[in-house]
Amino acid sequence: MGRPKIHDDALRGRLIDRAAALVFDDGVDALNLRRLAADAGTSTSAVYSLFGNKAGLLESLYREAARRFGARLGDVAVTGDPVGDIVRLGIAYRDYALREPHLYAIMFTQQDARIDDCAREEAAATLAPLVDAVRRGQTAGALRKVAPELVALACWGVAHGLVSLEFAGSMPPGLDIASGYEDALRAMVDGWRPSIVHSPQ
Does residue 21 lie in a domain region? Predict the structure, then answer.
């Protein structure tokens, strides 16, 4: 019979969530492993066992943020309406940000210079479902034939900008971003539709 795992996935997840909250509240430099262990009800040896050191913890935070983000986008079903899929992916973007604000900040607003290139490439790969939806839209003739990555990035930029402004509280008084968010996404996608050339009268 094998020995029971003392430092299991549940503890790892608890440490990840607490560390993300600490970084979100006070910044990367304020992340102290002793404080983290105390907050999570465990020992510093558990933190070192699971993550190695602070740099390992920060990289794990970044990878976990990307993993959960990718999983949320993966929940968006691929349909026969690629333009609609693009909008639904944008809605999933905001949903992830609202559900996981601490990890969202780790991935998108508080990136640390110590994160290695491999982890950054994994995070960048989360854009793949959106690029795929754009390509399908282009194949169907619903979107202009330009670099699909450009269209995807523009759509992502609108989602990111609106979410960032929402988090910062930088919205005009009385504006309900939740009710207008989808309309803003659709307006962006519509801007990439093929131009209509009118015949001369």
Answer: no
49 part of a folded domain: no
Q: What is the torsion angle, in degrees rounded to the nearest 10, for the CA atoms of residue 2, residue 5, residue 6 and residue 10?
A: -160
Nearest one of 140, 137, 139 to 188, comparing CA atoms = 137
Q: How far is CA 145 from CA 137, 159, 172, 192, 199, in A?
A: 9, 22, 35, 9, 22
CA–CA separation, 123 vs 60, rounded Å? 12
Q: What is the 8-class DSSP label of residue 196? A: P
What is the full per-residue pLDDT of the chain (201 aa) written as tens digits? 443 445 577 888 889 888 888 888 887 887 888 888 888 888 888 888 898 888 888 888 888 888 899 999 999 999 999 999 999 999 999 999 999 998 888 887 655 545 666 767 777 788 899 999 999 999 999 999 999 999 999 999 999 999 998 888 877 888 888 889 999 999 999 999 997 544 454
Is residue 55 a part of any domain in this protein? no
Tell me which residue range forms the domain holding 81: 62-190
Q: How many domains does the chain have?
A: 1
Residues 56, 116: contact at Cβ < 8 Å? no
Whether 33 and 23 have beta carbons less than 8 Å apart is answered as no
Q: Is residue 74 part of a domain?
A: yes
CATH number for position 123: 1.10.357.10
